Amino acid sequence: MNKAAMTPRQGKEGDPPPEAGTQQDVPKKEGKDEYAVVRMYAAREQIYPREIQGRFASLRWLCVFLTQLVFYGLPWINWNERQAVLFDLASRKFYLFGLVLWPQDFIWLAALLIICAFSLFLFTAIAGRVWCGYACPQTVYTEIFLWIERRIEGNRSARMRLDRQPWSFDKLWRKSAKHLAWGSLALWTGISFVGYFSPIRELLPEIGQFALGPWESFWIVFYAFATYGNAGWMREQVCKYMCPYARFQSAMFDRDSLVITYDNARGEPRMPAAKAAKLQEGRKAGDCIDCTMCVQVCPTGIDIRQGLQYMCIGCAACVDACDSVMDKIDRPRGLIRYSTENAIEQGFSTPEIRRRLFRPRILIYTAILGAVIALFLGSLVVRTPLKLDVIRDRGSMGREVEDGIIENVYRLQVINTDERGHRYRISASGIDGLSVDPSGPIELAATQTLMVPVRVRAPHGAGESGSNKIHIELQAEDQPALHVSEKAVFLVPRR
Fold it and tell me: What predicted TM-score, i.e. pTM, was given to this entire model?
């Protein structure tokens, strides 16, 4: 059966029926086995996050603005008469402003992924799921989609009321307008995404002329559908069940990591303000007035007062909500705040919390991350925009030609990764009297690859019988500093 399993259960006559989703026994008639439907998961409860203002909400919107400015804006920036950021898979070239990367430059991609991984480890160890709460695409697009929903359907109460109402003209136009806005934004997101792989200034006219290729069409629709479904419909389900980060984040935390915490000692016993005012002398209520604002603003629908949970994405919406309530009832802020487990239990002050941030784990992560970044940037600075691969011609081994001259044939694959054309001369060293035919010059346009067959010759008697190590070199005529040398084997027939 779909979403359920038929499981034999035994119970006593007269027992109450089990609740949905539980593992309780069911009634059993004498002599017969009864079967209960056990649901494998609970039905989703719709979450209606309340809009909240505050310092962390402003920071979150700043991150939304910056990330989307970069995502939507980068494909439109030009650099050297081309798109500044373009991953041209067809020609196997990655353009990053003034940097042109080829498949042979995979090492830099690997280094970049290592930097991202160690950055995630470092930031998580310091401040928990700060990436999830502020810059994760799922969080960013969910925030944008919620903003659209609020502008069209109203605040939290209005949205809940609208969903409970029967269908009417007002409900129909509001729902239609919301989904049309969601779909338009998702479609533009898909186009922008594909614009990183196909030049966006060529992509838009092709869309207008219905001349789009099959792969571009597929990825635009796929990415638009993923954005629309994840941010519009699934929302917190992605963070709770699909994202692996929620599952292994605990391995990155320790008791000195900054996380969203509820000060249990200060907040309990919680009770409404009116009830707290009626308490007898000598009895004391906590600062929490049980307004549930922290639950109402949570995008994943958890109650932070029950302790840190893996569903918490660290967005600090509950901090803003609780601080606003504390301001209204004239109590100090910080009932819910960024803190650490050790700070809550031992009552550390803010300076003490900051001092404990510089612990061995953080220092090691920082040192490794700094070293990898330094090596990454250093290798880019000294990188030569010229690549040379030497391939022996297997059909022509070392042979003796006129006047006893020994000749070996090679194919040189020359890659000019610079965005300027150059003229190169070819030379060889390692054996006295080596000559190269042709020696050059050869011309390569910007970001061009060229296969050049060359003959390397040694005079009679030069070198030793068998294999000899030589170097084949390329030198730019217009830029002396631009040169590259590659090892090769020169074969001399046995005398």
Answer: 0.80
